[in-house]
Please model this.
Amino acid sequence: MGALEARRWAGVVFASGPDRGIGLRVGFTDADGRHRDLDDWHWMVSRVGPHAPDGSYARMEFDLSVEPSQSSRPAASTLILEWSRRNDTMALLVTAKAPGRLMVIGDAPWGWRDRWQEETAADGLWRASVGGLEIAAAFSPETRPCRPPRPGCGELARCLAVEPGTTSRLAAVAAWGAGDPATRATGLLVDVDTWIDNARADWDRRRPRSPDDCGDLVESIADNLMWTGLLQPESGRLYTPAGRRWIFPRPRAASGAGPPELDDWTIFGWDTFFNALLLATVSGELAWSALLAGLDTRYPNGNVPNWRSRRGGTLDRSQPPVGSFAALRLYRTHPDRPALAAAYPGLLAWCDWWVADKDGRPRREGLTPGLLSWGSDTALVPPREQVPEWEVGASGHQRAAWESGQDDLPLWDDVEWDRERQVLAMSAVDLCSYRALDLTCLSRIARILGDGPTARRLDAMYRRLAETMNRTLWDEAAGLYLDELPCGRSQRVAASHFLPLTAGIPSPRRARRMVDVLRDPARFWGDWVLPTISRDDPAFADQQYWRGSIWPPMNYLVLQGLRRYGFDDLASDLAWKGARMFLADRRRTGFCRENFDARTGRGCGQRFQSWGPLFALGALELTPALRPRPPRPRRPDPR
Model:
């Protein structure tokens, strides 16, 4: 039970099994007759409140005065929704402070076939039979039956008038399980206020909190991630999308005529693995569920795709392979050997997919054998009717850029598409670094699980890759590893060029050279860090998406590299600059931003992005009581 369907920030889902369940949601019609429902609430959130992982308490606040749109800036909390689960009962309490009509709507999420039935209008009781489980809902006596917002779709509605200058409260109790659910729901209705007050106080006492002098780091992570968790209706598994609005339309072949419908779920490759690390601050169980849900998007050939939904996906391409990095870190904080063992085959298959034979070459081989480049398997691109509108006719170059996760990074502007090999014509520092990190983390997982032969195989692959990167990509004059192009090394530099630190590739001397570049305020350092492209690059002024903006995953990964090499002061500075920027924007706007302007620190992009709190996690991990330091490089300095 929970707010488990993407569009119901203001509502709950009761799921009893695969594709079976029922829903309640909140709607509001203002004094001018404008109705707010479903997707509207996304643009009206004024504060993402606490959310206990066991469902014992959840709170969300909205501003009824704003027009729901991309430009809305909610400020006041004039509608507050709270709910609490106790075993086989649930209380919902909605407080409204604006004139209009407040309603609770009974519906069927994802088009489920179960429906509410109203006993009599006077009783104010709804019943439903969901997979043999009886559930009943009772409503505060002040409510009245009213016309649902979508006539003819099997919905029911109960309404409460909110007069000008007053505060009104609509309460509902749902019950299921043993006994007569209707009797229990009705009997508990009179104590809803006390129930919610006690649940709020209880979660406030026991919720994870930030260490002293750390602000609200933990709260900013836990609240945002708990409200991002959604349900895969066909399996009952919980997962975390890139954000509640990041559910792609159904393929046109599946949705038929009429306006496009949303698919049931959408999982993005690297987003879900970072989300697992964020969820670990509040619930190891949910963190492992998110990680395994990400791995379960894997295709039979081993590819964990760029994105996958119930009816669509990207068989042609993947995303940065950070799954084993996340799994190893999650195991250190929430040791769960069965979960790690469940993840291991998928992680190994994904690792092998990158270099599997394709027309006589490793799938993503770069210009130099042993190195890698981003690509897209053209023959596996789905037909037009099975991809979102914006992917129709996309070039191989664009699909490869999407695989990188840095969709429009200026580095890709200079790279040709190799039509024959179906990769960008380069050896990419970032993908080689991700690959090296994947190999070393997966090797450690193999040892934990007692698979010594595989660990030794992965170690040998890591050593060969590290040696080739050091020989081919290191540029002594630049003090960095640079992308290899057919004409030589590219001179354009991105934040992702510091990822060799994270993978343990450079010698200590070379690492110091790299840090000198990082510290240069004309290139990367400053009040707002790290920009995705060097500040002296012509594209820096764009500050559009990956063209200069500051992104949470890149900051977080580079931070790991600095810690790995013992640059503790610089790591702390990077972590706290990012955390303060993120928290200041959150306190000012209530949002959890997708990225930030590297000139002003202003939040940009999507307003509720699941991996935004990586800025806070990076700072939180520096506190002494938390995670152990990443291992330092053991290889001696060869120079």
